[in-house]
Specification:
Blueprint: E1 10-11, E2 13-21, H1 26-39, E3 44-49, E4 58-66, E5 77-82, H2 88-93, E6 95-104, E7 117-121, H3 123-130, H4 134-152, H5 157-167, H6 175-192, E8 199-200, E9 211-213, H7 215-225, E10 230-233, H8 240-253, E11 265-268, H9 272-284, E12 289-293, H10 295-300, H11 302-311, E13 315-321, H12 338-342, E14 352-354, H13 359-376, E15 379-385, H14 386-390, E16 393-395, H15 414-418, H16 466-482, E17 491-493, E18 501-505, H17 510-522, E19 527-531, E20 534-535, H18 539-546, E21 550-555, H19 561-570, E22 577-581, H20 590-605, H21 609-613
Parallel strand pairs: 1-8, 2-5, 5-6, 6-7, 10-11, 10-12, 12-13, 13-15, 14-15, 18-19, 18-21, 21-22
Antiparallel strand pairs: 2-4, 3-4, 9-16, 14-20, 17-19
């Protein structure tokens, strides 16, 4: 076939997308592909795009290869590995001009484009010839196409074979047949296909000491290091693997070596209501406790969250966001729970919210969240999303200072109570809005174990007197203001002194935003950046807005929820905050951000003719 577009020629800079069928066993093979590129010292970022319901539906696995270290989704596909006839038309259409299509040529292809290079390999025919068992045919087909891709993309075979040995080390009898299948695919490609293609992987040393881990696993480990001993949860995509990671690490690190007894309590509750109730009960009793959920779970927890806020009980809630409302798209990513978490429950509430950008911050913020919950005696939300939580990503190694002590906040002991110190459960003696508390059983007679979810005075005595209620509500607001000194500060990065434009963003938007700045700079647009990492907003956030003519607020939801919080909390003129939104369930891309900001700036430069004539 003659091409009307020159084939791409790229080294260590391209996007491969695998189109498979859910339940076909392709996930482990595709992950093997991504890992092999990492082992060659080239950064690669995979994203698994899978259906929420039954086996047999389409699934995709995208791997971005970027020697420059760009970890965000780029958009577009340079090499499509098309293994699913159901999505053929869509998959072929997504290939960039000059890109490549690799497919199973056992059956003739249809509707091929003239601006791409087509590479066919009779995978089904090979598997039918080599294997008699139907399940083996399917599973080894995946390994065979990885072998072919290793030849087409110049991936070192020794790297893949080493990874296969590691993958099946607990089932050694599977190593040899998988290596054999890999070699079948590679040998066929070398003998029959145009190897290598214009897209190639060349060995580099760009990965360094970084680790490859997903955000849910990182948060589960961070919770162990943060001192959590209680987890009550109800399974929900995409947060389930966070609780499961915590369970694994508890078994490893919180089990007594002599007795074999665990020093932790994990309860899979009957629903989200029960799980948050258990967490609040454990927090009131002095344990560090958390639940892991997603948007629908947050909706169900509203009344209990109000209780924890008003009674001032520590609790940590990990919300791994997905696309809503209602059931929405359970296996797609979004940043759509910002406002519901910030103002969770009825009445006047404001909650501390942490916004990690990657697995490293998932680990750090998870550990820190328990200190914050104890220090502030309040629920603390850690907002991940599916893109961070469930996808493996290169991350700086986790570090921990063994001398670090847990911050239990203001806790009065029996000795404190016997010393004659004034104690009122809701009495603000330090003028920071944070009262002192006691643990149940701290003192046989002087400890105040009772707490209230109803209106009360400073000594926990029930009252409905308006001035007393108002005084308590104002103290809670002062406590929220005090939280600014404890939560992670925003990170600012200036492109140029005196730049007119700024951008505010958070969470998983970060890698795409970092790359978008480079694309904008190439167009002559200087953009200063501020990454928000927590709510309440530090004063630095408002200072950043004041320092720029326009500030673009980049987020992944329909209603510009972070922008809404900025307007509400900072009393900012809405006209100064420009929406840049993406909410189709896929990760935001640098291309989208760049185009939106550039178009907005260019549109503002156009002077209407009537105004110019005036």
């Amino acid at each position: 076939m003659s091409l009307n577009h020159a084939p791409q020629q790229r080294i260590n800079d391209f996007v491969v997308r695998f189109a498979n069928i859910n339940g076909s066993g392709s996930a482990s093979a595709n992950r093997l592909f991504a890992q092999s590129i990492l082992r060659m010292g080239v950064p690669a970022t995979p994203r698994n795009i899978f259906p929420s319901n039954i086996q047999g539906l389409p699934t995709w696995y995208e791997v971005r290869v970027s020697e420059a270290g760009h970890l965000g989704a780029r958009g577009g596909t340079d090499l499509m590995v098309a293994m699913n006839p159901q999505t053929w038309d869509k998959d072929v259409a997504s290939i960039e001009p000059g890109g490549y299509l690799f497919y199973d040529s056992t059956k003739p292809a249809r509707d091929l484009r003239s601006d791409i290079t087509v590479v066919g390999m009779p995978l089904t025919e090979i598997c039918n010839r080599e294997y008699t068992d139907s399940r083996q045919r399917q599973l080894f087909k995946n390994t065979i196409y990885i072998g072919a891709l290793s030849a087409l993309l110049n991936i070192e075979p020794e790297v893949v074979e080493t990874l296969l040995a590691e993958q099946f080390k607990s089932k050694e009898k599977l190593i040899a047949p998988n290596v054999q299948a890999f070699r079948k695919g590679r040998d066929y490609a070398l003998a029959n296909l145009p190897c290598p293609l214009g897209l190639q992987v060349h060995r580099r040393d760009k990965v360094g000491d970084r680790i490859f881990i997903d955000g849910n696993t990182a948060a589960g480990l961070g919770s162990v290091y943060g001192g959590a001993t209680v987890c009550a949860w109800y399974p929900i995509t995409p947060s389930t693997s966070l609780a499961e990671a915590f369970i694994r690490y508890c078994k490893r690190y919180r089990t007594d070596a002599e007795t074999g007894h665990g020093r932790y309590a994990i309860v899979q509750a009957e629903d989200e209501l029960a799980s948050i109730g258990m967490v609040i009960g454990a927090g009131w009793n002095g344990s560090r406790a958390f639940t892991a959920t997603s948007g629908p779970g947050i909706s169900l927890m509203q009344e209990f969250l109000g209780l924890a806020y008003f009674a001032e009980i520590p609790a940590v809630i990990f919300d791994v966001q997905r696309a809503g409302p209602s059931t929405g798209m359970p296996t797609r990513t979004q940043q759509c729970d910002i406002t519901v978490c910030a103002y969770a429950s009825h009445g006047d509430t404001k909650h501390v919210v942490l916004l990690p950008q990657d697995p490293h911050e998932c680990f750090e913020f998870a550990a820190q969240s328990f200190d914050l919950a104890d220090r502030l005696q309040t629920p603390v939300f850690v907002l991940l999303d599916l893109d961070i939580g469930m996808n493996d990503r290169l991350s700086a190694p986790f570090t921990w200072d063994d001398s670090r002590k847990m911050d239990r906040g203001k806790v009065m002991t029996a000795a404190d109570l016997d010393s004659g110190r004034t104690f009122g459960r809701y009495l603000d003696v330090d003028h920071d809005g944070i009262a002192y508390r006691t643990y149940p059983g701290a003192h046989p007679s002087k400890g105040a174990f009772f707490t209230r979810g109803t209106s009360r005075d400073e000594y926990a005595k029930y009252t409905e007197e308006g001035p007393v209620y108002q005084r308590n509500m104002e103290r809670l607001l002062l406590k929220f203001e005090s939280a600014k000194q404890y939560v992670p500060r925003p990170i600012r990065r200036d492109a140029a002194e005196g730049a007119k434009y700024g951008a505010i963003y958070y969470g998983s938007t970060a890698p795409a935003m970092d790359e978008a700045v480079e694309l904008l700079a190439a167009q002559g647009v200087s953009l200063n950046l501020l990454r928000v990492r927590a709510f309440p907003f530090h004063d630095d956030v408002l200072d950043f807005v004041a320092a720029h003519d326009k500030v673009f607020v980049v987020e992944q939801n329909r209603d510009a929820q972070l922008r809404t919080l900025l307007i509400n909390e900072g009393e900012i003129d809405p006209a100064r905050l420009v929406r840049v939104l993406h909410y189709d369930g896929t990760p935001i891309t640098a291309r989208l951000i760049c185009a939106a900001i550039a178009n907005s700036i260019n549109a503002a430069k156009v002077v209407p003719l009537r105004k110019a004539a005036t």
